[in-house]
Amino acid sequence: xxxxxxxxxxxxxxxxxxxxxxxxxxxxxxxxxxxxxxxxxxxxxxxxxxxxxxxxxxxxxxxxxxxxxxxxxxxxxxxxxxxxxxxxxxxxxxxxxxxxxxxxxxxxxxxxxxxxxxxxxxxxxxxxxxxxxxxxxxxxxxxxxxxxxxxxxxxxxxxxxxxxxxxxxxxxxxxxxxxxxxxxxxxxxxxxxxxxxxxxxxxxxxxxxxxxxxxxxxxxxxxxxxxxxxxxxx
Amino acid sequence: xxxxxxxxxxxxxxxxxxxxxxxxxxxxxxxxxxxxxxxxxxxxxxxxxxxxxxxxxxxxxxxxxxxxxxxxxxxxxxxxxxxxxxxxxxxxxxxxxxxxxxxxxxxxxxxxxxxxxxxxxxxxxxxxxxxxxxxxxxxxxxxxxxxxxxxxxxxxxxxxxxxxxxxxxxxxxxxxxxxxxxxxxxxxxxxxxxxxxxxxxxxxxxxxxxxxxxxxxxxxxxxxxxxxxxxxxxxxxxxxxxxxxxxxxxxxxxxxxxxxxxxxxxxxxxxxxxxxxxxxxx
Lengths: 234, 282
Hints:
The structure holds two protein chains of two kinds.
Chain A: E1 4-13, E2 16-26, E3 31-35, H1 42-49, E4 57-62, E5 71-74, H2 79-82, H3 88-93, H4 108-120, H5 136-150, E6 154-158, H6 166-182, E7 186-190, H7 194-200, E8 203-206, E9 212-215, H8 216-220, H9 223-233
Parallel strand pairs in A: 3-7, 3-8, 5-6, 6-7
Antiparallel strand pairs in A: 1-2, 1-4, 8-9
Chain B: H1 2-11, H2 14-39, H3 43-62, H4 69-88, H5 94-115, H6 122-131, H7 141-160, H8 162-170, H9 172-177, H10 182-204, H11 209-223, H12 227-252, H13 256-281
C-alpha cells in the first residue's frame, strides 16, 4: 500500500483545468521529484496533496497508516515571514503537533523533539536568534527542522533551494538526501533544477501539457525530458 | 506635588477608578491580538469592524434600546466572520471588502442617526461615538463588570490558544497541511477581535480603535525579536500608554481617546529610535 495514491487528478485555477489525468503513487521511502515548466501546476499539485485545496477532479488517498498530522511540509517563503518577529526555537516548536487531543502548551517531549531536530539541521547555535535576521540557507534549515517536528514519515518540499547560492544549495540537497537515506523519510520535492532532480530522485513526476510518471531511468529516455532540456538550451 | 495632590483628589472619584480599570483591561486585550492582526496584514480589519460597530450603535439608538451592547456585539461579530471568510477566496479582495464595509457602515450609521434623531445634540452624540470623548468617564458599575468578564474571556482565549495562534499567524499553509484546523482558529481570532473592538469603543471611540490595536504591536516589533517578547512588550506598552493617556486627559481636560492615541504615537517614536539604535549597535 502506498502513502499517497493519486487517481486521475485534474488541476487548475478558478475552474480552468491546466493538467488532467494525473496518476501516481508515492511509496514509503521514495524520493520523488516533481518537475515541469513555470505555471504548469507543480505547487498546486503539492497543495492538493496536502489537502489545502481540493482537486478539480479525481482523488488523492492517504494509505499505509499515514495520518493527516504525520505530514511535514516546507512551503515557499511567504511575505509575512520576512518581517515576522519570532525566534528559531519558537518556529521549530510550532511544528510539533502532539499526539492526538488538544493541549494548550508544548510538552517536554515536544521541546526535546525541537532540540533534536535543530541539532540534526545544525542550527542549535541559532536557537535564540531572530528568524528574519538569518540568511536564506539558515532560514530553510529552520523550516526544515520545523517540518521534521511534524513528521517522521513524509516530507513535501516546495522548491527548497529557491534563492540559495550554489554552495548552500548543495548542502541543502545532501541534507535532504540524508533524511531520505538514513532516516527513511519519504521525500516529495518540487524542483526547477532538472540536473539535481535526476541526481537525487529515484522517481520523477513531470507535470505539464504531457504528463510523465516513472523511474529516473525511464524519464531520461522520455519525450518530456528531451523537450525540457532542449528548451533549456535554446 | 500639586499634580500628585490633584491626581489623588481625582482618584477618589468612583468614575475615575472605573475608567482606569476599564482602560487597563481594554488596552491589554487589544494589544495582544494586535500582533497577530498586524502580522497577518489585517491591520485595517480593526478599523472596518469599528465602523460596523458604529453603524450598529446607530441602529440601537434608533430602536431606542436601553442596553445596546448585545446588538452591537452580534452585528460586529457577524461582520468579522464575513470579512475573514471573504478574505480567503472572494471576488472582492480583502482590503477592498474591508474598505467597502467600513465606509458603508459609517455612512449608514450617520444617516440613521440623522433621520431618526431623538437627541437635541446630534453632532455631539456622533462625535462621542466616533472619538469616545467622554463615554469612558460615564461608565456604570455594570459596564465595568461586563468589560471585566469579556476581558477575562479574551485573555483566557489568548493564553490557551497561544501556540495555535502563533502557528496560524506565522504560516497558515503549514498549520493546515499538518492537521491544524486553521480556519477554525481564524474564526476564533475574528470573533475575539470583534469583541475587543466593541469593548474598546468605550475607551477611544470607533475611529481611533485601530491605534489601540496597531501601535503597541508595531512599537514592540521595532525592538524585540521573538513572538513571546513582542507580545509581552506590546501588552505592557499598551497598558502604560492607556493609563498615562487617561491620567493626562483627566488632569488637563483633553479628550480621552485622542490623548491616549497621542501618547501611543510619542511612545512609538521612542521605540522606533530605540530600534534604530539597537540595530546600529549590533
